[in-house]
């Protein structure tokens, strides 16, 4: 009797908690959801202790004032899981049709099969909503007693039918349309159209960002822009984990990574993180936003699975590569770890300052006395030519910008190739030794004809290719009827642009005094500087030039660097080093340069110039 009444008491106590639990999605999830090893690498009851930042987000799901939730979150931050918890909460507590969209139908179906359906099956609070009819339980359409979950890929055809109370868009910035900037119907608007018949609808989008104009960054900025603020364990003032406060020693990033409180400059170590996060709260930064739209930014510093040391190591490595012209990893770090967009124009601005630091005090057109030769790179446009002349030293492809400019016609090119350039001391005169002229895009036949007619100028037609096995190759253009090349005929130089752009970016990253630095004269013009900073390596590792920018000088410099390598200037370096220098690169056996060193006639012995005269 006593036992029974105790049971009744206990039941009613549980029941009394059920109502508030129902209203609080994260508490409901903690009490009702268990993840088995089939759905989670960390099986057990769902917990928010290590990710307390999801609590407010999940509360917002049940908040009648909130209609739109944007998660601009890093990798490893459980953003997809958080969106799924929102769906599970709706199934058990607030049913209504759900549209779930992922970048592809396959990715969407995989999530349905490997997570959603398993969690429903394995948790009684959700399983009781199943109809019992197998046909209702499909990957693309999960029919439950009071609602349907439509599972779709990001494709206009798949998003135009059903009316839904909840629309969840996962990884929006990976939708093909936005990746390729296609001018199709806007998929996000199209999907959100589905909610228009529901006053109490909920829109939810999640992604790591890409570029400033990308979907998730735009949505984050439209919303109230919340940051997760936590009290400093030392002074108690609030701050958020961001790159500005992230400190480490570049020589030992793994062991030294920590945060510095912006208020007291105190050192916050990773052991402080769990408690700080539990005491944290989301604070809106955008008072202008519609109160219906909450948007949350979360970098990977908050992730329960990523160590700060790992992030510091990743950043140091990415920075080193960026200095060599390979921005892929830095781009990825900014998007995936900082959850911020990658802005190529900002990157270019930094480069202009770097370039200006490479200026010496020579006037334009004047050659340093220690130079051994001049090369030219000419970019061909329909109405003009753009050129860059460079001087080269003996060591490590040391180089100096001599002149940049535009020419109207082939006669101007002829005259420039024939002109002389004086050295700083006035005691030496230089002529352009050799060069390349672009024949890939414009006026191909005319360029060939010019190079053929004036072969003594040692100007060769060239064409850039993104993927090649070697840095450069020569194709014979002028052939006899039997297919053999005509002696002295025009030969096309094919340039591996990926190789030379990386090489050039690496040279430009050297400091003024470093061996092999790539110096500029005292007053490079703005066009030259702009062109040199226009191109960048995108996240796929491909060099791209934004459509609004010009890059002719950069192309000219690529041709100059190719010419210098073809002339064997790099090999001359090995020759000039002391024999006992341990890091002297071996002289390639095929190169006959060394014996001729004193006369500097290497240009005549090189395969590039052989056969021209
Ligand atoms: Zn502090």
Describe the structure.
This protein has 2 domains: 26-225 and 285-306, 3-Layer(aba) Sandwich (Rossmann fold); 354-605. Helices cover 34% and strands 20% of the residues. It has 21 helices and 27 strands. Strand 12 and strand 13 form a beta hairpin. Helix 2 packs across helix 4. It is elongated, with a radius of gyration of 32 Å. The protein binds zinc ion (ZN).
Compact description:
The protein is of the alpha/beta class and 613 residues long.
Q: What is the strand and helix layout of this fold?
A:
Blueprint: H1 2-23, H2 25-32, E1 34-35, E2 44-45, H3 53-61, E3 68-73, H4 79-93, E4 98-102, H5 105-122, H6 124-127, E5 141-143, E6 148-153, E7 166-170, H7 176-179, H8 187-193, E8 202-207, H9 215-222, E9 226-231, E10 238-239, E11 246-247, H10 253-256, E12 258-260, E13 267-268, H11 273-278, E14 281-284, E15 293-298, H12 308-323, H13 328-337, H14 344-356, E16 373-380, E17 385-392, E18 399-407, H15 410-418, E19 421-422, E20 429-430, E21 432-438, H16 444-453, E22 459-465, E23 472-476, E24 491-496, H17 497-508, E25 518-519, H18 526-534, E26 536-537, E27 543-544, H19 552-566, H20 569-576, H21 602-605
Parallel strand pairs: 3-8, 3-15, 4-6, 4-7, 7-8, 16-21, 18-25, 21-22, 22-24
Antiparallel strand pairs: 1-2, 5-6, 9-10, 9-14, 11-12, 12-13, 16-17, 17-18, 19-20, 23-24, 26-27
Bound molecules: zinc ion.
